[in-house]
Amino acid sequence: MRAVVHRAFGPPDVLNVEEVPTPTPRSDELLIRVHAATVTAVDSAARRGEPLPARLTFGPIRPKYPTLGADCAGRVEAVGENVRDFAPGDEVLALSGSFGTHAEYVCVPQDSPVVAKSAVLTFAETVAVSEGALTALPFLRDAARLRAGQSILVNGASGSIGSAAVQLAAHMGAEVTAVCGGANSDLVRSLGASRVVDHTVEDFTRAREAYDVIFDAVGKSSFGRCRGALRVGGHYLTTVSSMAIMGQTMWTRLGRKRASIALTGLRPAPDKARDLVLIRGLAEAGTIRPVIDRSCPLDQAVEAHRRVDSGRKRGAVVLRMSEEA
Ligand SMILES: NC(=O)c1ccc[n+]([C@@H]2O[C@H](COP(=O)([O-])OP(=O)(O)OC[C@H]3O[C@@H](n4cnc5c(N)ncnc54)[C@H](OP(=O)(O)O)[C@@H]3O)[C@@H](O)[C@H]2O)c1
Questions:
Q1: pTM of the predicted structure, to 2 decimals
Q2: Which of 42, 143, 193, 262 could form a disulfide with 188 if both were Cys (CB 3.0 to 4.6 A apart)?
Q3: Could you report the per-residue pLDDT of 183-197, keeping only the tens digit for each?
Q4: Which atom of ligand 1 approaches the CA of 264 most closely?
């Protein structure tokens, strides 16, 4: 099979498309013919081997996961003898706990988050709509406990997580202020934002007691800078880890204004699977829609990574492994 492979950490040019052996499923695994997968900030970090402490996961010297990609939409090709819930031919959306989806085939254990694909979405739309929403949903629903009528500001509203957050928050009945560059203003309005702040001309942190929730989907702010813009009882959340937010998550727990980070990737597989089903339902109903920055064939993995590294993508970057995507 063809797979995107990197043998050293570095810029997108370390990636090559190679012929590698097609994996064979173990007794509890599904072999999936991948049609589409997203390229994310996590793939970029794993390719770069940064930040350095993450080398414990990505490999201390050389990449532990030569083929990246953490999600895929495709068709089950074969199953191990102990797999009960899936059969060859099933169209699925799956998450891999050990990367490997930027290839024509991948094996995933049956207890990974694997759900049936929606018949009304393409393979590319399936991965695109799930990628950001699977992170945004636990932040808004579980960490912020966002309620109808509340006022939320989403920073980085045109990215993968941000564009999902805007749509989910509007669906939850919140009043949404979206922060992005001016060129993405129409996009975020179309997703449900009632107000847009262009971060190149206005500093949203100068607002005073304006928001019940500030969700920084791209981690470009800090609790210290945003505290004044929060209402009393308000909650600041960020997706990007730092020593500061780790401490603030504990210290502000009982405070008048809270700060927290959630590590949504570490949630148990059944919780992720349940949310993938929920997101599928919202997408089928047209409540949320995929935002696709670009969809690149496998051969253009380097360009796809460059776009992710730019920090400017609108929604998801998708890698297509077949014409069916
Ligand atoms: N904690 C968790 O569980 C978790 C899970 C998954 C990912 N993450 C992290 O979440 C982060 C965001 O991921 P993502 O995929 O949503 O990002 P992304 O799609 O790469 O975000 C790109 C967007 O960010 C906007 N942006 C760039 N600089 C900005 C600024 N200074 N102010 C406001 N917006 C700005 C850009 O909008 P303009 O071009 O319009 O400026 C662009 O549309 C990554 O760091 C990732 O590692 C965390």
A1: 0.97
A2: 193
A3: 999 999 999 999 999
A4: 3
